[in-house]
Amino acid sequence: MARKPLSILMYMSSKESNIDVEEIYQEYLQSETSIVTNLYPFLTDRMGNQHSDRPIFYSNTVQISLLTSKIFENSRKIRTINNYLPKIAKDSFISSLLTDEIKYSNDIEEVTTYRRDLGTIVAALNEGTKVKQQRLLSTVQKYLGAIKYPQIKISKLSEIRNIYDQLTEGEIENTKLPDGKLFRNGAVMIGTIDGSKVVHRPPINETLIEKKLLDLIMFMNNDDIPTLEKAVITHFMFENIHPFYDGNGRMGRYLLTQYLSKKNDPYTALSISGSIISHEAKYYRSFDNADKYENYSELTFFVQDILNIVADGQTFVINKLSELKSILEENMTKIKDKFSDHQNAEIIIEILSLFVQSKLFNVDRSLGIKDTQMINTLYDYNKKVFKKKSVKQIIRQLETDGILKLVNGNPIQHEIVLENI
């Protein structure tokens, strides 16, 4: 018989006397393929009573083994495609994924965020220019840090609060800020979207929250747990503890991004929230099932579901990168055919190459390459060939010829018109 959630077996046992759920639970728990953790989540039974007496465990099923292998193989495919892409294309795609990861993570929490606002901040930080917009600046900086310097080592409760503060700076209403020393000190309830049912009651005060978080920190630093499974279980447990009044989901997804960036690749890490939105019903159903006391704190199916969501996000990245790479190659062939006989062929082709990469691999114009950035990039590459004055003149001529169009005056920014090449 195929493995079933213990809550399903419990229902079946009411009709089939040969099913002993407690015995099956003990078999699962003591199996050589099971990993039992030090984490005791707060779970709610069907009568609404709360329990915290069963440790989280999962079994390393064939499905989980296949999924982890698939995820690492997908990472290898992503890195292979990435190695064949020019620099502007790589940087643009990462910036676009980062922008969308923050946007989608906020969308899940119904926090309004615009790509243009995020893109403007990401572009300014990448270019080293002044950031005029302060909202979401700290959030973007935190995600950039997760990609450039992925580190998930947390050893103290205060470090969790510091991450939270940096990630949500200016985004949490005053009435929803933590009222304890580090975390919330009041009760909250997690219900269905329509408010008709309570599905989870997290720890009711800061003392209980701190105890559960200390156990989670110990778990996160346990190198005996496989990384992907550890990342997923950490994601569940953090949401289960719910240490803040608001922003828990964003914090939990950020921690998952950190894990995946460090152990896999930044593309995988930054495709999480988009994939969750594509599988939103499955995502929340997995949490609801894992929060049931009748499932005995077993996270085998939760781990499988979240790993499937991670793998689907990777599939999107692989398909998108492959598609854009093919379109880039087609357009570069057109550009070389059109301008190879021009007296300034080398300069024109290189200029248009950067514009094509920026156009194709950026999700929003705010992330696109600016004229000054392009001029400096080419000049640094070869000062003799790409003189700044010459590059400026050629950009103006390409605008006159309809190959480029001016899309921003401050800072000056052109964009390629692909249909005119």
Structure summary, number of beta strands = 8
What is the CATH C level class of the largest domain, in words?
A: Mainly Alpha
In percent, how helical is the residue content?
Answer: 55-70%
Q: What structural class do helix, strand and pairing data support?
A: mainly alpha
Describe this structure in words.
The protein has 421 residues and is mainly alpha-helical. 59% of the residues lie in helices and 6% in strands. The longest helix is centred in the C-terminal third of the chain and has 40 residues, at 300-339. The model has no long low-confidence stretch (mean pLDDT 92).
What is the fold's blueprint, element by element?
Elements: H1 6-13, H2 21-30, E1 34-36, E2 43-44, E3 50-51, E4 57-59, H3 62-83, H4 87-108, H5 115-127, H6 137-148, H7 157-168, E5 190-191, E6 198-200, H8 206-220, H9 227-241, H10 248-263, H11 266-269, H12 272-278, H13 280-290, H14 300-339, H15 345-361, H16 371-381, H17 388-400, E7 404-409, E8 412-416
Helix pairs in contact: 3-14, 4-5, 4-12, 4-15, 5-6, 6-7, 8-9, 9-10, 9-14, 12-13, 12-14, 13-14, 14-15
